[in-house]
Amino acid sequence: MKEIEVTEYKERVKNDSSILIIDVRECWEYDENNIGVTNYPLGELPQYLNKLPSNKDHEIIIHCESGRRSRQAAKYLTQQGYTKVSSIKGGLKAILLNS
Fold this sequence. Notes:
Blueprint: E1 2-4, H1 6-15, E2 20-23, H2 27-32, E3 38-39, E4 60-63, H3 68-79, E5 85-88, H4 91-97
């Protein structure tokens, strides 16, 4: 699992539309403010494993509000065998600050 800066996140998604971006905040947080990506809350992430790409090398970028939960989610997905998992440093706050 690695952390990436918002600038790297923006560059990567700009150049590769196949990247899966997951927001691991709670549903109510997502409903209040989101950037239009998939929402799989951290506590429910194991239930969504079957919705993730079967290709364990598929790139996945995760964010939450500030970066703590996304690091936990990235670690979990890495433990499940996913090899290209990143967490956005600073989370949604950093994304919105750098928009």
